[in-house]
Amino acid sequence: KRAIDTQVYDTYEIERIARVAFDLARKRRNKLTSMEKRNVMKSGVLWNEVVTQVHAREYKDVQLEHQLADSGGMNLVKWPKQFDVIVTDNLFGDMLSDIAAMLTGSLGMLPSASLGEVDVKTKKRKALYEPVHGSAPDIAGKGLANPIAMIASFGMALRYSFDMGALADKVDSAIAAVLASGLRTADIKSEGTTAVSTTQMGEAILKELQALHG
Asked: Which of 37, 91, 113, 200 is most buried, with most CB under 10 Å away?
C-alpha cells in the first residue's frame, strides 16, 4: 500500500494570507512570526520566500521573523510570550493552534476569528467570530460552560471588524481582572479559586467592563 499527500500553495495565495497576518500584527505588537518547514518541504521554501518579499515590499514597519514549524511549536510551549501573530499554512496551523489552546488550560478560554481579505472597493473584510470549542451538548443547561471564549470572540470582532481597538482592550482587561480575582468556571477550577457558573462568570465580566467603560 502507498499513500501520498500533496500540499499546494501558489504565490498569490501565500501573499493573501501574509497580508492578513501583517495587517493584524500592525494592530497588535507589530511583530509577525512565519512558520514553515523549508528544510524538508518545497511548499515551505516558497512560503518563506513569498512572505519575505511581501514584507520587503509592503510591510517594512512590521518586525518579521522566520521559524521552522517544529522548533516553533517547542518555543511556543517554552516561552509563549515571545510570540504575537503567527502565520503558517493549514497543516501546521491546525497543530500549533491546538498547542496554543492548551497553554491557557482550556479550550473554553480561546476565541477565534476567520478573516477574509480586505475588499478593494469597500475596504472591509468578511469575518466569522466564534469560540474554538464545539457546542458541548453533554453539558447544555448545567451552567458548566466557560463563556470567556465567546466574550473574547466578540472582543476580536470589535478589534478587527469594527476598528474599536480601545473597547476591545477593555473587554480583554475585564476578563483578566475577573480571572485575577479568583473566579473560575468548572473547566479551569483549581485549588484556592472560587467556582462559578456560566452566568455568574458572564455577569462578573460584564460588571467589570461597565466599571472600565463607565
From this structure: 37
